[in-house]
Write a structure and sequence with these properties.
- With about 375 residues, this protein is of the alpha+beta class.
- The protein is built from 11 helices and 15 strands.
- It has 3 domains: about 100 residues, Rossmann fold (3-Layer(aba) Sandwich), CATH 3.40.50.20; about 70 residues, ATP-grasp fold, A domain (Dna Ligase, domain 1, 2-Layer Sandwich); about 150 residues, ATP-grasp fold, B domain (D-amino Acid Aminotransferase, Chain A, domain 1), CATH 3.30.470.20.
- The strands form 3 sheets. The chain has a 7-stranded antiparallel beta sheet with strand order 13-12-9-10-11-14-15, sandwiched between helices. It has a 4-stranded parallel beta sheet with strand order 3-2-1-4, sandwiched between helices. A 4-stranded antiparallel beta sheet has the order 5-8-6-7, sandwiched between helices.
């Protein structure tokens, strides 16, 4: 019998990528999409799509959202629901803990998800467990910012960011305390972000890794990683950096994998579901955890799904639906592949030896 999978935020880039991976794994899968934005939902490739009432951003899921979600699960005969972003992951976990949803979920506790939403709380936890992280200080006012800058000295650069959110929201590099304060002031006055939501931390200059893994009741099931080489729309960001790769390649760094496993154990020894880790190397080349996103798939999940021994999205769906999954070795290194992305184009994944096929140089133009 085909799996019937409901995905929230359907029509968004990450969710459409996830649907592609799920269909690649098993074409008999029935995909059901839902969203509170009818225009985004229109881009969903799911076989059925439902418009839901929006959740209340302040108080969690509204009664109307809860009612609509449960109605869709029943009407479409959903087997498994997958959250499409960080907010939905926390909403679904809280809903399910308050009153179990009428379908399966594959989520950790709401407490674990909420912890992963707070980058500074993760930093404090990881320092306690001696897990490599960038030295970080909370900011409450200008005086605390100046104190943090002095504590980081001598540094040519520091990283200023909001302790909640994704997609590098409110994050940039700064070269002195005045720049950092102007950055924070802008976000405070123009975007309404409280000053105390910011942190100032050590700038990590090394390689940028993404690691995505599945755990089941604390047991690592499958893990893969890649390195971001350039960023989508990075030139539009003050830092020249972003969280979504335009060019990435598969890599395998045992030290980074070991750090992710240690970090996951510190966050939740009974970790359950999908988690992805962002990491950067410090000046000594040590991979440091910069954040964890709990219970949702990374935007470039296809890079972890369509190559290697196992499709990670398909593995997640099987586990989430209660099916047996037998993976003896969870460390999946597919060899050297590259992901190439650009706005409004389908991502391309190429093995290293194919990367320059059918590409000519001017010197070779017109030759056979």
């Amino acid at each position: 019998m085909s799996r019937r999978i409901l995905i929230t935020r359907a029509g968004s880039g990450p969710c459409n990528n996830l649907m592609c991976s799920l269909m690649h794994d098993d074409a008999s899968t029935v995909l059901i999409g839902c969203n509170s934005d009818r225009f985004v939902l229109k881009r969903s490739p799911a076989q059925r799509n439902f418009l839901l009432a929006p959740p209340d951003p302040e108080d969690g899921p509204s009664h109307a959202f809860d009612r609509d979600l449960r109605a869709v699960i029943g009407r479409a005969g959903v087997d498994l629901v997958i959250p499409g972003n960080d907010d939905d992951a926390l909403l679904l976990a809280r809903l399910h803990e308050r009153e179990p949803l009428p379908c399966r979920t594959f989520l950790p506790s709401a407490k674990t998800i909420a912890l992963c939403h707070d980058k500074y709380a993760l930093y404090v936890l990881f320092r306690r467990y001696n897990i490599p992280v960038a030295t970080t200080y909370p900011v409450s006012d200008r005086a605390s910012l100046i104190e943090a800058w002095r504590a980081l000295a001598p540094r040519k650069l520091a990283w200023c960011r909001i302790r909640h959110g994704c997609a590098s929201l409110g994050a940039t590099m700064v070269q002195d305390a005045d720049q950092a304060w102007h950055w924070i002031s802008y976000w405070n006055t123009m975007r309404g972000v409280p000053v105390e939501h910011f942190t100032l931390c050590e700038f990590l200059p090394g390689r940028d890794f993404n690691v995505q893994g599945i755990w089941s009741e604390g047991r690592l099931v499958l893990i893969k990683m890649c390195e971001r080489l350039s960023y989508l729309n990075a030139t539009q960001n003050p830092s020249g950096m972003a969280s979504t790769a335009a060019l990435a390649k598969t890599v395998w760094e045992p030290a980074a994998i070991a750090t992710c496993e240690a970090a996951m154990h510190a966050v939740d020894p009974r970790a359950h579901g999908i988690f992805f880790f962002d990491m950067k190397e410090n000046e000594a080349g040590v991979p440091c955890v910069t954040e964890i996103n709990a219970s949702r798939f990374v935007m470039i999940t296809n890079f972890h799904d369509l190559i290697g021994r196992y499709n990670m999205a398909g593995t997640y769906a099987r586990l989430g639906c209660g099916e047996a999954v037998h993976i003896e070795h969870p460390y999946d290194d597919p060899g050297e592949y590259y992901l190439v992305r650009e706005l409004d184009t389908l991502p391309g994944i190429f093995p290293a030896h194919e990367l320059f096929e059918h590409i000519e140089t001017p010197a070779g133009a017109g030759t056979q």
